[in-house]
Amino acid sequence: MFQPEASTTEILESRVITPTPPNQTTEGSALTPAEAAPTPRVVAVLGASSLVGYFLIPALQQAGWQVIGWSRAGAGSDLPQVIPYWICLAPLWVFPDYFVIAQRHGARRVVALSSTSIESKQHSCHVSDQRVVEQLQQGEHALRQWAEARGLEWIVLRPTLIYGAGRDRNVSEIDRLIRRFGFFVLLGRGQGLRQPVHAADVALACQRALESTAFSGRIYNVTGGERLTYRSMVEQIFRARGRKPRIYSIPLWWIVWVLRLLHFFPAYRHWHLGMVQRMESDLVFDGTPISRDLSVHPRPFDLQSFDLPDG
User: What is the pTM of this model?
Assistant: First the structure.
C-alpha cells in the first residue's frame, strides 16, 4: 500500500523528566536578566516525550543540564524560579500559550522546532496542508515577535522527514505497511527526492542551538545527510527488514479510486491526493548553514533494525 508522507510536527504529551528540588512557586512578575544572573543550566522542554525528546533529554542530562519536562497540565508548582532556557518540541503553534510562563521564569534563550513543511506544502491545494502551513507561519511569526520585543535570543529549526527508534510516522509507517502486505505501492516511479533526518540528529541540532549562544535570530533547515529518491528510501526499508523489495507503480486514476475506498475507514480518512502526489516531487532543502554555524552534520540514510518498530 502507498504511504502518504506525514507531517514532521505532531502533538505528543510530555512529562516531567527530572525532579526540581527548589520549593518556589511560579507566582510573581517576570525576572530581569540582572536578577537571574548568573545563568543556571536549567532548560524547560515542551514535548519532552516526543520522538526528538527521546534522544534530546538524555543528551542534555549527560551534558549537565537540569531538564524540566512540560506536560499539558503543566509541570507542577515546585519549579525553579529561574528557567532561562526553553526548547519547544511540541507543535510550534502551541508555544505562544507558554510565552507568559516562560517570561515569568526569566527566559533568555529559546529554541523551537518548526518544519520544512512550511515550504514544501505551501502550494498544496488540500485544506489540511494549507492549515499546517498557516499554523507554522503563525507560530514562527509569533515566536519572533515575542522574543525580539523582549530582547530574547531565539533560533527556529526546520527538520525534514524525521525518522528513528521505530516511533516516527514516516519510515515506520511504511515499514508497517510492508510487513502487513509484503509489498509497497508507489504513484508513478517514486522519483521525488527526500532527505530523511534521524531524530537523534535533530536532537543534536536542538542542543547545539541551545548552547551556541553566538548565534541568534536564525532559522535553520535540519536535513538528512543524503538525498535519495522516495523509491530508494522504500527499498532501504525492505532491506533493513531483510526482505527483497517488492514495489509496484500504479497510475494516478487508480490512486484516486483507492483513496475513495480508504475514506470509508477512519484510520485513513486523513489521506489525500496531495500527500501521494508528493512522491514525485523533490522535497530537498539547504542544510549548509546549520553545518557551518552549529557543526551539525546529520548521518546518511543508513537504516538500522533499531530504527524500525518491533515486530
Answer: 0.84
